[in-house]
Please model this.
Amino acid sequence: MLRKIGVLTSGGDSPGMNAAIRAVTRTALANGIEVVGIRDGYKGLVEGLYEPFTRRSVAETISMGGTILGSARLPEFKEEEVLMKGVNKLKENGIDAVVVIGGDGTYRGANALTQHGINCIALPGTIDNDIEGTDFTIGFDTALNTIVECVDKLRDTSNSHHRCSVVEVMGNRCGDLAIYSGISCGAEVLITPETGYDEEAVLEKLKYLENQGTSHAIVIVSEKVCDVQALAEKVSKATGFAGRATILGHIQRGGSPTPNDRVLASRMGAKAVELLIEGKGGECVCIRNNEITSMSIDECISLTRSSRKEFYRLFDRLV
Ligand code: F6P
Model:
């Protein structure tokens, strides 16, 4: 019998996390289940930073970016001693199950808790879209919109000055934010973990485009693949474009979630509670072909990243 559940957000925040917390809270309350908001991710879970939630606790939050619960990274949660402290704290507070919202590190914590008798359901909350088994993660669409808005602005000024804007986007070793924004913004060059970095080829392509009469260029680069400042300097030296680097940084993680993210988060939050009511744990919620479904966290974290070959082929055709 499920009487009380906890909800937490962990890892890097993402727009739409509040919509997910709201959906979890309201679905649970509607089913007669008490809800506790756990502050600051697994850190708060271990330390007992728990707050009873009512319908009103999540009022006016659907349009808010960030997470009302706060987030933190706690690598020590892998250690048995820390994990057991968390399990005991939940039991002392009568919490039978937890919904966790975050990235793959968060998923591992949920699995460990489930193995220790606390059913957990994980929701994909990250702008990176780097979780397997789901077509989209909560926050990806908003971050993509933010990037597109920024790059469109850079294109205006870059066009006026015959420049090449080298723009670094987030993604944490996943090229989705880069490829989706590259296509959306009509970028000329894309550098992602999937394409790799071939400096010569990038400069040659820019020179070729310049010879074809292109007046300015946008290069979208996934973080952690190359140094955008150094590349912009090389562009200035090797081509007729003046290179300028822009690192979009954490601005990509903020802002009011798009309707797509709000709907996705609401559907996923409701599903998480349904799964707990069915007595399930160690599962993560996914969206595939616009259907909300779930799979075991074990299976999810063992999957290898599906490639976006079709997107890259499309990008190349459109330059
Ligand atoms: O996972 C989300 C993310 O924003 C990544 O895109 C990025 O690499 C990382 O978090 C940044 O982490 P932090 O907020 O700790 O600087």
